[in-house]
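Sample A.
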Amino acid sequence: MARVITHTSTWLCLTILCSSSFAIRYENKEPSKEVLEGFDVTITCVIQDIQGSSDVTFHWSVPAIKGKTLSSTSLDQGDRFVVTEEIAEPRGDSATVSGSSTLTISNATISDDGVYSCQLLPTNGGDILATIETDLSVIQFDPQTNAACWVEPTSMPVLKDTTVLRCATRQSTSIQLTWEAEGVELEGEQSESAGVTFLLQELAVPLDWDEIPLLCLEKDTRKVLCRTSVTLLYPPVVSVIPDGEILYGSEARFNCSTMARPEEVTGYRWWYDEIPVRPNTHHRFNRVRLENDNKTMVLPDLSAAVSDITCGIIESG
């Protein structure tokens, strides 16, 4: 199955005064998260620059609870769910506020596995102002070895500095664990909590480790307790041709490049302000050109002061 990976060059300013504009700003810092079964986990969403009244509230959609949402004022959050929120008072001439909310899940079970949606709404009802989603994976112990292995994050952009390998076992607390990859031993940092022995290894993953088996072993016997792997992603990068500023009203050229292996890239896609760009069909540009097998996008007479330019690569696999 093909997958599309994107990169956005945000707030591209031309060499004229950039017009001021308002938008709710939010960055999903936890698109995915992992928790070991039986342990607690907290998911956080943060939204900034909410225009107008601070009379807003957060609601959470939880996979284990059907047909309703949870909020900090819910009287029936259940024994395992706690929602908190903090909404700041309006600030500045623009009368904007910022807010955050957390959802804490105690004693996670497989029923908690799934997508959690954090929504910001007016307290008295109305349209949803913003939504942030987190895909929570509940890691289960292997019934045969009583151990579990996982990677945080499961899919890691190749340009990211580090990833974390985690191994957990409910065997004897005196057990000594180690990681092994391609015959190379990675000892890591061992700890204990609630009768579980953990082994953590933080490292920069080499390019040739893409989807290779990462083994957690009992150090003395070399018995394999569990295994996992890292899937390396190759995000594209948007660049201006040539480097530098773009003159108002002039032609703008953008290039999309990636570190992915050429044989794995089956195509390129472009978006301007989140709207797909195709030759001669974009709503603002009737003479858009896609060149160099769609790696280059040319926009004539660029006149917008602020724009989002996004390119995506289509990878096979």
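Sample B.
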Amino acid sequence: MESNKPIDDPGSLAAAAASFPLLVYDHGEQPDNSQTVLSVADGSLHTYQLPEMRNFRCLETPQGLVLIIDAASLQCSLWNPLTGEKMPLPAMDEAPSEYCRCLVADTGSSRPEWNPDSLVLVYDLSRPELLMCRIRGGATAAWVRQFYDMGLYEVPGKPITERAIHYMAAVQGVFYYLESTPNTIGALFSFADDPEPGLELVTFNAKLPELDRKDGVTLRATKTYLLEHSKDLFLFCLFYKVVDSTLELEEFGAYMMDLTKKEWIEVDNIGDAVFLLGPRGFAASCPATEHGLKKGCVYHACDDLGDSNDYEIFDLKEGTREVAGPNQDIPVLSRKPFWLVPVHPDVNMNS
């Protein structure tokens, strides 16, 4: 296990390109505003002081780019951690909430290539609100705010709140998400020739996977993740059971959406790839062999493991689970560990 003193170098992550994907442990402002990064391929640890994470809000995306927002001016940029390249985007009119995720998706064609009509979408997990802008136009463009209605969330004894999207994936220019209505998928479409970005909604029924146990009990998925893989929509599910008032993992599985039949098909072969899952529904696909990873595995770094900084590895083919993590103590974190994944080679950030 290797560990270095902090390196203050904007291109330092580019030097670690061969070690991607990286699990990032961000220590925030104290004591030295540094980040520890773990390569899940070789187990190496390095510590950096990344300028992009000082005084900036960072929203990582499954597409490998990171939306960075200046804390003072709210000026935005898309950052490629592999190259250090930045694409200017317009400033926001108000700071996004703490509970946000970001996606980048092509809207100009059916091919998932990155062109100036790509949409940057920020969706709030705490309220029904979308923020979007096109890469075309750079910093002179504008963010467009769009609201939607998923109904109300009512819990006895607590204030009524509006439901919001929690799981979303961008697949060939379409943003898919899980509706609040059971077994319903929402799809948001955008059109490149519109004068400003806007999303039109359609929904369709697709029964979510369930686990039929031998004792006759049927379990619904406790945790779900939506993601794009090989131009298809995938779902990863974790099924838990209650044992002595605590949750224990019963089963896990990966499913591909058959858009013709409108149904989830269970798969144990995802080709030469791995899935990377993180907090607040983050889910990405990454080439396996190219990055020194065992194909067909799912790396799950999320809240289920508490503050241990460990992650789970699920092998879809063998049906096994193991726990791995850094072999040394990690300083106190300012946020949950998050993934930096390789950027697709066809990404074009030119405006």
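B remarks: The longest strand covers residues 246-258. The radius of gyration is 20 Å.
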